[in-house]
Design goal:
The chain has 276 residues and is of the alpha/beta class. It has eight helices and eleven strands. The protein starts with a helix and ends with a strand.
């Protein structure tokens, strides 16, 4: 058994993708949804207080009178899209989790909110409409590989009207400095986040060159062994500018986060407002 497991827990090549679409796994997707909906937990979405503050700020810098339509990339269960709709925007949300999209659709219907949701891989997004602005929030941009980020920027650019805006955030180099490398293991006799049954998890957190980190989890259950990779890329202003301007965007302004705080060298995130 040890001989078989050792190769699985080796450091993978940069940006190796998880073979299992865990965001649509019946058990894991439920755990992710619960994490999104917990207003006091910021592991999947930011805390409710921050979300409210963020939407208030976005509605001020991009008022619905001048930017009436918004595309939210990686919308999850609709925490931002619902608040956009209540601010008067025409809203479209896109996510690659059936469970999150189904929840968002049911919730919007129950609340009478006119939001269009699409279950799509946003790296292959193709909608027959263009938007006044788009958002991608909670550092999802940096979870993608370099090539996938380039592809995403191209797709967003194509889905914006002339002069449209794109607001996104990433983890800063300060956040990278606080990243702690580690190797741990845990036993979950009653199941847990990754599996409903008894399993052992081997966890690794490690740094890669070019300001990239990996959080890897090897889940050893009775019937199968699964490997999960969660990548993060950390950015300076210069690095973020090179990628976004290189895809045709213009920089409007930098912020410390998507609630409009002033960026400083101590900020854990870096947000940027782009213009097509």
């Amino acid at each position: 058994m040890l001989t078989e497991l050792t190769p699985l827990f080796k450091k993978p090549p940069l940006y190796t993708k998880t073979e299992i679409p865990f965001w649509d796994d019946e058990h894991i997707s439920l755990q992710m949804l619960n994490a999104h909906l917990n207003p006091n937990y910021d592991g999947a979405s930011r805390k409710l207080e921050f979300i409210e503050k963020s939407v208030d700020w976005i509605s001020k810098i991009l008022p619905s009178e001048h930017y009436p339509s918004v595309l939210d990339i990686g919308c999850g269960p609709g925490l931002y899209t619902e608040r956009y709709a209540k601010k008067g925007y025409r809203v479209v949300g896109v996510d690659f989790s059936h469970r999150s999209i189904n929840y968002a659709q049911m919730n919007a219907k129950r609340k009478g909110l006119p939001i269009d949701y699409f279950y799509q891989d946003y790296l292959k997004l193709s909608l027959d409409k263009k938007f006044d602005f788009a958002t991608m929030i909670y550092c999802d941009f940096g979870a993608l590989s370099t090539n996938d980020r380039k592809q995403l920027l191209k797709i967003i650019y194509q889905h914006l009207k002339p002069g449209g805006r794109f607001l996104l955030d990433v983890f800063s180099l300060t956040q990278l400095e606080n990243f702690q490398e580690s190797q741990t293991w845990e036993v979950c006799p009653d199941g847990g986040f990754w599996c409903p049954e008894n399993y052992i998890a081997l966890n690794r957190a490690c740094k890669y060159p070019d300001n990239v980190t990996l959080r890897q989890t090897l889940v050893i259950a009775k019937k199968k062994v699964s490997n999960y990779y969660l990548w993060d890329t950390y950015f300076s202003k210069k690095a973020l500018e090179e990628e976004t301007v290189g895809s045709g965007f213009k920089i409007c302004e930098y912020f410390g986060d998507v609630s409009g705080s002033t960026y400083s060298e101590h900020s854990s995130t870096l947000a940027v407002l782009l213009k097509k």
